[in-house]
Each structure stands twice: as structure tokens, then as C-alpha cells.
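User: My advisor, Dr. K., asked me to get a structural model of this assembly before our group meeting. I'm new to this, so sorry if the format is off. These are the inputs:
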Amino acid sequence: MQYALMFYAEPGHEAELSDAERAAVRAEYEALRGDRRFLSGAQLQPAETATSVRVAGGRTLLTDGPFADTKEVLGGICLIEAANLDEAIELAAAIPVARHGGVVEVRPLVGLR
Amino acid sequence: MLASLAGYLGDLDRAEEAAQEAFAIAAARWPETGAPDNPAAWLVTTARNRAIDRIRRERTLAEKLHLLPAPEATMDEFDDTVIKDERLGLIFTCCHPALALEGQVALTLRALGGLETADIARAFLVSEETMKRRLTRAKAKIKAAGIPFAVPDERLLPDRLDAVLAIIYLIYNEGYSGRVDLGAEAIRLGRVLAALLDDQPEVHGLVALMLIHQARQAARFDGDDLVLLEDQDRSLWDGTLLAAGRAELNRAIELGGGGPYVLQAAIASLQTRERIDWPRVAGLYRRLAELTGSPVVELNRAVALAQAGDPAAALSAVDRLDLDGYLYFHSTRGELLRRLGRDAEAGAAYRRALDLATTTPERRFLTRRLEEL
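Assistant: The format is fine. Below is the predicted structure of the whole assembly, which you can bring to the meeting.
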């Protein structure tokens, strides 16, 4: 099955980490990219750079900022192929943001027929 | 049978449907032909084949066929280990922590306890519609999110087993309500789990704990009034349940158990002895407090200290706890202050407890204590 892992964290949550810790975290994300179950992924620029777009009455309306104005913001996303939810949870739990005060949301993808 | 089918089909609804169909065929056929040599295996095979037929017929779902292993089920697949793993797998699925807690409880009672939805609804004081929705939501998530029908591997097992035990104990503590005796149901589930995971001490510990509690059930109330352990009429205790509980506890200890359920069962067992060894009870509470970090366990340790003859040490332990909103904190303080002859303070503590009491038996008990001062 395919799952999306979505990383939520407070902006600047890594600020307190030492250089060595930050390097270790980077290495862990690199390792995730190397995992055979990893399909694709991306880290997002900070939420201040977001633009929200909607279309009403044929007009395109823009709002500065992310869709949901919450303390924790979406910081990255990755798609994985896992045998089942347990395997997906195991991968999610290994993501550094999950133990640095953030949350990783795991969602199954709609299968393509 | 349901476990076996659910594990095979990866879908609880389909498994239930297939099982019903197989029973219907058996009811029609067996009176004429006689029951087959191995009725259980026959039912499972028939149900599996029916489920496969049904899936084949549903053309829009035809692509699901590749999910089923190709060869048809044969009788000799049904050795004990297969059934055992499938049943266990279903237990871990129903108690998967990715499901809402209320969904886990409902699903466990429905799929493993075999209770009707209406009975589960009655037991939890919700409408049948609500309970149906809970079950549907849980089953839908199992399917959509890919929660496996399998026993977790060794690394995951300790955490997942804790989750299963917590659900069974939660069901036990819902106790008796209306037509459904959830206490007995929880004990039955616990025993099934203990048989399947015979080498896990905490499972035996939980079964022991529930059995020992259950043995004292009849003596815990006098009419509507709560009866303290020391005042309970021991002739009302159920000796068979008590012996069964102690046997489970011994098994847990043989296996080197010392987890929270084993410790609680050991405490409960000591408290059923003719002469209670309170210093030992206090020692077990200390170990339990170290494991759980729970102030409520500390409170119980203090009670044991008082029973061991040191109410002053007990009171100073109690006064270190931050449990102001907890009824038993105040009733325990009241009791300790009374024993130390500090009646005015005891009265204040009992009145504070009375403010927090929500049930009639609790209120009556505390009012009596106040009058006796």
C-alpha cells in the first residue's frame, strides 16, 4: 500500500539543536531517502512563503499565508510504499521531527486503478 | 472461525458474511447428510469458498481477486497453529492503537466476544445506531489504512500487547451493566489470550487480577453500600475463582513476571489471605509506583503503610501527593487523621471527599464515617 507521511512542526523547532545534532538529523532524512520503501518527498519552504489560491465566480482569489493558520505547520511530505499500517508507522516514527515536538500524520493514498 | 476467515480475506465484513452463509448451508444440508468428520474445518472451507465465489461474482471488484492466494483451501491447512495465529492476529487488529479507543472496545466485543451490536450498545449506554456507526468506522479504517491482520513482530509485540491488555482490562472495569456481564466477558477474552500467548507473564497477571477481583464481587456491596475489604464477608467470596486467580498468578511468577498487572494481582492475592501481610503489600505498591509513576498507586502504598501499623508515616506520604481533585485522596487523609486522633482535621477531609463524591454508595459511606467521628 502507498501512504503519505506529512510532517508538522512549529517553525524553528530545530533552532535549539546543536550543529552536530542538526547534522545527525540531516543524515537521518538522507537515510530515509535511501530506504527502499521511499517513493518521493519534498521539504517545504517556511509557511510565510505560502500563497493560498481559490477560485470563486471565475475569479482567482489569493491569500497570503498557509490555508490553516495553526501553530504547527506542514513542513514536508513524503510518499512511501509499505506492506501495511504497522510498517508505515515504523517509518513515520523514525522521522526526526516526530521526536522533536512535531507530528507525522500517516494517510493511506487512494489506490490508482 | 471468524478470525480464520478475517485473516484469510483481510476483511471483517466479508468474513462475517461468509461465516453466516456457511452456517446456513450447514443447517440445510447436515440434517440430511449428517455432519462431516471435521465440522469446524468444513465450515471454514465452505465459508472461504463462498467468499471467493462472491468476490468473483462482484464484477466491479474483480481486480481484488489477485489479493487472494490462488490455490483453494484444503482441509489439512487447518492445523492448530494456523487457527492460533489467525485468532491472535484478529485480537491485535481489533486492539490496534491506530483505532479510536471506543472503536477498539466495540470491535473486540463484537468480533472476539461475539456479542450482538445491540448488547454492546446497551452495555455502554449508547443507542444501537451509535454503536453501529462506531463499528463501521473502525472496520472502514482497518480496511482503508491497511491495519494488518497479523501478530506484530517481536519488536512491536510488547507495546501492542500492552494495548490489548489495556482494552481487556477496560472492558472488565465497565463491569456489569444490564443484560451483558462485561466482567465475565473480559475474563473469557483474557483466558483465550493467555492460552494463545502462554509464555507472556503479563497476560497471566491480568487474568489473575480479574479473577481475584471477580471472586470478591459478591462481597463488595451490602445492598447499595460499599463494603471495605477488611469488613467483607469472606464466606461470600467465590473460592473457585480465587483458586483459579492464584493459579494464574503462580504461572506469571514462574515466567519471571514483574510487570504492572502481575504486581497488582500479587497485591490483590495477598489481600485475600486470612492475615494480610501489609508490609509486603506496601513493598509491592512501591515497586508498582516505580513502574507507573502514578500518585494513585502512592496513595495505596500509604494505606498499606497505615495498615502495617504506621499511620503517621502514611499521612506524611499522602501529604506529599498532588491529588486535590481525587475523592480517595481526601477520604484516605480523613481515615489516617481519625486514627491519629486528629478528629477536627479528619472531619474537614471527609467533608471535602463528600463534596467530590458522585455515587450514592460513596456518599452514604462518607456520611457514615463523618457521623462516627
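One thing worth pointing out at the meeting: The interface with chain A takes residues 63, 96, 98, 144-148, 150, 152, 156 of chain B (CB under 8 Å).

User: Perfect, thanks a lot.
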